């Protein structure tokens, strides 16, 4: 019997997709398949696709077409496969298999069947699977950071979002499972764990009958990982219990990623997020009072159908008032299958683009001021890269999440994958600049890399 084929993987989309990619690679490696980064040399290329918005679909399709033109044997996985399961195999003859968002654990069987000459479609009508700590994982992030998915799917019906259709209903992992995986990652030398799901503040509702995020945070406090960061925290779910857990758990970073989407109550009702519109101001003020050192990140959508100039100005004022540390802005993308797809009063793309630019320019001034407050401080930095030409170290302080926020550039010596003290000497809109302090590496989080390509 000959050696097994080599597999390369092209990862597209979010960090939740990345976890799926890492589990597929882990399963394939465990089964004896070669894992390679060179798509030209690989026997199969898995493309883990994104289909969240039009731009993501275009990137996914462009990647598939390029591989097809190179006569590669393609396995299409992820959200595009789930979304367009009836069309993709027909439209891309080079695709040997289609694997849905709830079927990535079948990847070894899929490759075996493809090797036998079968054209495989493994797409569940509604995804129900979620990997746990027993599923092998081939990490593709820098050595010091790992994402841990605490739940999959979503029970909300936001008018602009197709995720429930692509990912299924919410299904949480038990606290014990998550903590066990965190211990495994700590044993591998991971310094930062990032908790992810569609709505992290809803963690546990389906499993325990009520949110259990506070209990999860406290349980992770027993894991020997210096930083535990949380993404996708709905502000209405940041209860006093959750805030207390963050305050009282030494490795829980006071970094709050709040997917607000907008500020105007009427527009939030149109988005099918009416509960949020009445509480944004008060919740953010309360969060700042409870966690004065908190770093706040949020995302907004501009150009939602019917968004008036007055409603847009409300959003701009909201951004100016609350001075978030980090803001991402997206233009509304009409997605077939969502309630907002055919709403009246759709807005011209040029207007959406102009509004996005205006919010981003407003935020740049705020981000610059927020970063300037770090100058002169000595902060903990997770070192993730070294510039081979200059020897300059590149990493992140606790105020910067991987891939979405800024970086810290530091002069000096430090080991990759370790947290060290860096004295900040300068700052611009997005990044900080400094030198490694003479003191020993930091061991506790204070707030005072680019991921490896597959």
Automatic annotation (TrEMBL):
<keyword id="KW-0479">Metal-binding</keyword>
<dbReference type="Pfam" id="PF04055">
    <property type="entry name" value="Radical_SAM"/>
</dbReference>
<dbReference type="InterPro" id="IPR012340">
    <property type="entry name" value="NA-bd_OB-fold"/>
</dbReference>
<feature type="binding site">
    <location>
        <position position="161"/>
    </location>
    <ligand>
        <name>[4Fe-4S] cluster 2</name>
    </ligand>
</feature>
<keyword id="KW-0004">4Fe-4S</keyword>
<feature type="binding site">
    <location>
        <position position="14"/>
    </location>
    <ligand>
        <name>[4Fe-4S] cluster 1</name>
    </ligand>
</feature>
<feature type="domain" description="Radical SAM core">
    <location>
        <begin position="140"/>
        <end position="369"/>
    </location>
</feature>
<feature type="domain" description="TRAM">
    <location>
        <begin position="372"/>
        <end position="438"/>
    </location>
</feature>
<keyword id="KW-0963">Cytoplasm</keyword>
<comment type="similarity">
    <text>Belongs to the methylthiotransferase family. RimO subfamily.</text>
</comment>
<feature type="binding site">
    <location>
        <position position="158"/>
    </location>
    <ligand>
        <name>[4Fe-4S] cluster 2</name>
    </ligand>
</feature>
<dbReference type="GO" id="GO:0035600">
    <property type="term" value="P:tRNA methylthiolation"/>
</dbReference>
<keyword id="KW-0949">S-adenosyl-L-methionine</keyword>
<dbReference type="InterPro" id="IPR005840">
    <property type="entry name" value="Ribosomal_uS12_MeSTrfase_RimO"/>
</dbReference>
<dbReference type="InterPro" id="IPR013848">
    <property type="entry name" value="Methylthiotransferase_N"/>
</dbReference>
<dbReference type="InterPro" id="IPR005839">
    <property type="entry name" value="Methylthiotransferase"/>
</dbReference>
<dbReference type="InterPro" id="IPR007197">
    <property type="entry name" value="rSAM"/>
</dbReference>
<dbReference type="InterPro" id="IPR006638">
    <property type="entry name" value="Elp3/MiaA/NifB-like_rSAM"/>
</dbReference>
<dbReference type="GO" id="GO:0035599">
    <property type="term" value="F:aspartic acid methylthiotransferase activity"/>
</dbReference>
<dbReference type="InterPro" id="IPR002792">
    <property type="entry name" value="TRAM_dom"/>
</dbReference>
<dbReference type="InterPro" id="IPR020612">
    <property type="entry name" value="Methylthiotransferase_CS"/>
</dbReference>
<comment type="function">
    <text>Catalyzes the methylthiolation of an aspartic acid residue of ribosomal protein uS12.</text>
</comment>
<dbReference type="Pfam" id="PF18693">
    <property type="entry name" value="TRAM_2"/>
</dbReference>
<dbReference type="GO" id="GO:0103039">
    <property type="term" value="F:protein methylthiotransferase activity"/>
</dbReference>
<dbReference type="GO" id="GO:0005829">
    <property type="term" value="C:cytosol"/>
</dbReference>
<keyword id="KW-0689">Ribosomal protein</keyword>
<feature type="binding site">
    <location>
        <position position="154"/>
    </location>
    <ligand>
        <name>[4Fe-4S] cluster 2</name>
    </ligand>
</feature>
<dbReference type="InterPro" id="IPR023404">
    <property type="entry name" value="rSAM_horseshoe"/>
</dbReference>
<feature type="binding site">
    <location>
        <position position="50"/>
    </location>
    <ligand>
        <name>[4Fe-4S] cluster 1</name>
    </ligand>
</feature>
<feature type="domain" description="MTTase N-terminal">
    <location>
        <begin position="5"/>
        <end position="116"/>
    </location>
</feature>
<keyword id="KW-0808">Transferase</keyword>
<keyword id="KW-0411">Iron-sulfur</keyword>
<keyword id="KW-0408">Iron</keyword>
<dbReference type="GO" id="GO:0005840">
    <property type="term" value="C:ribosome"/>
</dbReference>
<dbReference type="InterPro" id="IPR038135">
    <property type="entry name" value="Methylthiotransferase_N_sf"/>
</dbReference>
<protein>
    <recommendedName>
        <fullName>Ribosomal protein uS12 methylthiotransferase RimO</fullName>
        <ecNumber>2.8.4.4</ecNumber>
    </recommendedName>
</protein>
<keyword id="KW-0687">Ribonucleoprotein</keyword>
<feature type="binding site">
    <location>
        <position position="79"/>
    </location>
    <ligand>
        <name>[4Fe-4S] cluster 1</name>
    </ligand>
</feature>
<dbReference type="Pfam" id="PF00919">
    <property type="entry name" value="UPF0004"/>
</dbReference>
<dbReference type="GO" id="GO:0046872">
    <property type="term" value="F:metal ion binding"/>
</dbReference>
<dbReference type="InterPro" id="IPR058240">
    <property type="entry name" value="rSAM_sf"/>
</dbReference>
<dbReference type="GO" id="GO:0051539">
    <property type="term" value="F:4 iron, 4 sulfur cluster binding"/>
</dbReference>
């Amino acid at each position: 019997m000959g050696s097994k084929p080599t597999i390369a993987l092209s990862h597209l989309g979010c960090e939740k997709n990345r976890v799926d990619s890492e589990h597929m690679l882990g399963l394939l490696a465990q089964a004896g398949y070669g894992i390679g980064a060179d798509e030209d040399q690989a026997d199969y290329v898995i493309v883990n696709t994104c289909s969240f918005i039009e731009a993501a679909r275009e990137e996914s399709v462009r990647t598939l077409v390029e591989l097809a033109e190179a006569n590669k044997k393609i396995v299409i996985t992820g959200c595009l496969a789930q979304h367009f399961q009836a069309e993709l195999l027909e439209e891309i003859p080079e695709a040997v298999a289609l694997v849905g968002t709830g079927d990535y654990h079948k990847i070894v069987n899929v490759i075996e069947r493809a090797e036998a000459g079968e054209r495989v479609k493994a797409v569940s009508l509604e995804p129900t699977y979620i990997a746990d700590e027993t599923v092998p994982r081939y990490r593709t992030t820098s050595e010091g950071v790992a994402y841990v998915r605490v739940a999959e799917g979503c029970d909300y019906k936001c008018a602009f979002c197709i995720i429930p259709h692509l990912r299924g209903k919410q299904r949480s992992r038990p606290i014990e499972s998550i903590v066990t995986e965190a211990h495994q990652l700590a044993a591998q030398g991971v310094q930062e764990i990032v908790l992810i799901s569609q709505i992290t503040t809803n963690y546990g509702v389906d499993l325990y009958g009520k949110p259990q995020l506070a209990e999860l945070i406290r349980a992770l406090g027993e894991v020997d990982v210096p930083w535990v960061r949380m993404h996708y925290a709905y502000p209405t779910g940041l209860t006093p219990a959750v805030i207390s857990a963050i305050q009282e758990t030494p490795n829980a970073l006071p970094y709050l990623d709040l997917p607000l989407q907008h500020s105007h109550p009427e527009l939030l009702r149109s988005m099918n997020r009416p509960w949020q519109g009445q509480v944004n101001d008060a919740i953010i003020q309360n969060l700042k009072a409870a966690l004065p050192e908190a770093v706040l990140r949020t995302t907004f959508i501009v150009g939602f159908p019917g968004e008036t100039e007055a409603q847009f100005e409300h959003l701009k004022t909201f951004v100016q008032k609350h001075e978030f540390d980090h803001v991402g802005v997206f233009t509304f993308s009409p997605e077939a299958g969502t309630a907002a797809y055919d709403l009246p009063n759709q807005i011209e793309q040029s207007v959406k683009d102009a509004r996005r630019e205006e919010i981003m320019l407003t935020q740049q001034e705020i981000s610059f001021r927020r970063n300037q407050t770090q100058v002169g401080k000595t902060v903990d930095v997770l070192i993730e890269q070294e510039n081979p030409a200059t020897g300059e170290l590149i990493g992140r302080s606790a105020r910067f999440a991987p891939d979405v926020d800024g970086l810290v550039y530091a002069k000096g010596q430090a080991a990759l994958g370790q947290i060290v003290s860096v004295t900040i000497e300068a700052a611009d809109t997005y990044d900080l600049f400094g030198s490694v302090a003479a003191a020993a590496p930091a061991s506790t989080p204070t707030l005072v890399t680019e991921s490896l390509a597959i």
